[in-house]
Amino acid sequence: MKKQDFIKAVATAAGLSQDAVSRVLSSMIDTVTDELKAWNEVNITGFGAFKVSHRAARNGVNPRTKESIKIPAMNSPVFRAGKTLKEAVR
């Protein structure tokens, strides 16, 4: 499902305009992004939690050349599904 399909589905289910749902979704994404940039965790009860994970620098291997490379340290977003979402998918 693409973003526009998601917006249409939510608009139909909620009885709202696609424009309103699009603005809300964009605001939600911006808010979650801003909170993760500030290293805050975002918990949505019944859905899951977004947080930032620090990955340490490590050595890797280029699969084409078999040459050893250094992979730099980085921060990456992580989503952990909540109990309600896990049970619904099972």
How would you portray this structure in words?
The protein has 90 residues and is α+β, with helices and mostly antiparallel strands. It has 2 domains: 1-40; 44-90, HU Protein, Chain A. Helix content is 43%, strand content 30%. The chain contains 3 helices and 5 strands, in the order H-H-E-E-E-E-E-H. A hairpin with a 6-residue loop joins strand 3 and strand 4. Helix 1 (3-14) crosses helix 2 (18-37). The protein is elongated. The two termini are 19 Å apart. The model has no long low-confidence stretch (mean pLDDT 95).
Give the strand content.
25-35%
**How many distinct domains?**
2
Mean pLDDT: 95
Overall morphology: elongated
What is the tally of helical segments? 3
Largest sheet: 3 strands, antiparallel
Order of adjacent strands in the largest pleated sheet: 1-2-5
Order of helices and strands: HHEEEEEH
Instruction: Provide the CATH architecture of the largest domain.
Output: Irregular
What is the CATH class name of the largest domain?
Answer: Few Secondary Structures
What is the structural class? Answer: alpha+beta
| Fold-level CATH name of the largest domain | HU Protein, Chain A
